[in-house]
Amino acid sequence: MMAVSVNQALKKTLRDHELKATSQRIALLKLLNGTSEHFDAEEIYFELHKRQKNVSRATVYRSLEALVEQQLVTKLDFGDGRMRYERNQGEDEHHDHLICEACGKVIEFFNLEMEAQQIAVCEEHDFKPSSHTMHIFGTCSNCQKK
Ligand SMILES: [Zn+2]
Ligand SMILES: [Zn+2]
Ligand SMILES: [Zn+2]
Predict the structure, then answer these.
(1) Centroid of ligand 2 to alpha carbon of 39 (angstroms)
(2) pLDDT in tens, 40-77
(3) Is residue 1 very low, low, confident or very high in pLDDT (cuts 50, 70, 90)?
(4) 79 and 119, same structural domain?
(5) How far apart are CA 136 and CA 127, in angstroms?
(6) In terms of domains, do 79 and 120 share one?
(7) What total number of domains does the chain contain?
């Protein structure tokens, strides 16, 4: 079997979504696929700039929007005026978030019973769900000790 490099695979993903496989888009996907952080656009720009000096802020912002539009990247609103971005949640990668309002820490969780309950609610209302995001806001265990 021929080994397909990560770059090749990402190039194909981009082309499948009718996006030009630019090195910045590939770097962006690599960054988000390789982290469980929830970066805002500015943080993503800084991370990419560290690796590739010729990255421009405008291109990063534009690329992010294009990737979100093609559902290769997920955009999250934690209600603090900074949009966050994370790897796209595939079928088996779905998770929800606990967000600490004191330190900004984001904890990812997945609870099968909770998911099942949501499906049950939709069925009750004869509602066909396409997606959902659940954010629970509060105070993380560290911040509670302060
Ligand atoms: Zn969920
Ligand atoms: Zn905290
Ligand atoms: Zn997440």
Answers:
(1) 17
(2) 999 999 999 998 888 899 999 999 999 999 989 999 99
(3) very low
(4) no
(5) 23
(6) no
(7) 2
Angle subtended by helix axes 41-51 and 23-33, to nearest 10: 110
Gap from CA of 36 to ligand 3 centroid (Å): 7
Distance 98 CA to ligand 2 centre (A): 10
Instruction: Name the H helices within the chain.
Output: 6-16, 23-33, 41-51, 57-69, 112-124, 141-145
Q: Report CA(132)–ligand 3 centroid distance (Å).
A: 13
pLDDT tens digits, 86-126 = 988 766 678 999 999 999 999 999 999 999 999 999 999 99
Residue 134 CA, ligand 1 centroid: distance in Å: 6
User: Quick one: which ligand is closest to 99's CA?
Assistant: 2
Which residue range(s) make up the domain with 70?
Answer: 1-88
CATH number of the domain that residue 145 is part of: 3.30.1490.190
Diameter of the chain measured on Cα atoms: 55
